[in-house]
Amino acid sequence: MNTAEEPRPDGFVRYVALGDSQTEGLGDGDDTGGLRGWADRLAEHLAAVNPSLQYANLAVRGRVAGQVRAEQLGPALDLRPDLASVVAGVNDLLRPRFDAGRTVRELEEMFAALTAAGAHVVTLTFPDIGRVAPIARPVRHRVFDLNARIRVAAARHGVTLADTAAHAVATDPRLWSADRLHASPLGHERIAAAAAYALRLPGIDDNWSRPLPSQELPGRRQAAAAELRWAAGFLGPWLVRRFHGRSSGDGRAAKRPRLLPLGTGPGCPEGTGLHTAAQRE
């Protein structure tokens, strides 16, 4: 099996995704028609290199890094992946008692265990959420701290890092869904391309990091009204859940807990929510 230092030049065979709502795919589809998300899209890139790819997605919305490690690491190791993505930490930094060091220690435990088992690991940094949701500016320093620690941890364990936070396009509103916490379909597409580029997959360039065409910005009054609508529609319900100790992931299980070829399994009309290039043609 491959080492953690270098991606496989002939493509990966067994890809397992660990994480929270972003990896589950919120913002890209819905619970009725099926969620797609950046990990599903990355699987499509991987399948273009190796059509025999098998893919599992263990991510569950609402999970903090410690829950991802406790609930998903063991099942991931049982699947013996040669590629794993580990993305978690945003739910941690939104908690009042956020501890960046503790969060990254949870990530490092997953990095270490997966690489020791022979998997290549890929992870991401997070955008400045103060630019995505102005009301979140008081916690933007947490994002910077977490990203700095993720970069160090990734380097220490030979983990491939898609440093999306280093590019201004990561905070373009068009890459974010209405709740400003989850990527839009375009955002998920860009994240997948960033990971594929970091993994040096054939045919993937750096277009993901380039800015979108300019657009007219809303006036001050329009922006203020949008902030109020967002607070009422998304921030308020989120605070109510936190107050009552509830999570959006309560009672939920992974959408794709077993390794399956693309085109089979739960989640879309054909079974997965994934559409390979061959299926689209």
Task: Describe the protein's architecture and organization.
The chain is built from 10 helices and 8 strands. The protein has a 6-stranded mixed β-sheet, with helices on both faces. It has 281 residues and is of the alpha/beta class. The model is unreliable at 267-273 and 275-281 (pLDDT under 50).
How far the N terminus sits from the C terminus, by CA atoms, comes to 33 Å
Which regions are unreliable across 5 or more consecutive residues at pLDDT < 50?
A: 267-273, 275-281
Q: Helicity range of the residues? A: 40-55%
Side-by-side strand order of the widest sheet: 7-6-5-1-4-8
Mean pLDDT: 85
SS field, number of helical segments: 10
Multimeric status of the protein = single chain
Shape from CA axes? globular
Spell the H/E element sequence: EHEEHEHEHHEHHEHHEH
Give the tally of β-strands. 8
Structural class: alpha/beta
Strand content: 5-15%
| Biggest β-sheet description | 6 strands, mixed
Q: What does the radius of gyration come to? A: 18 Å
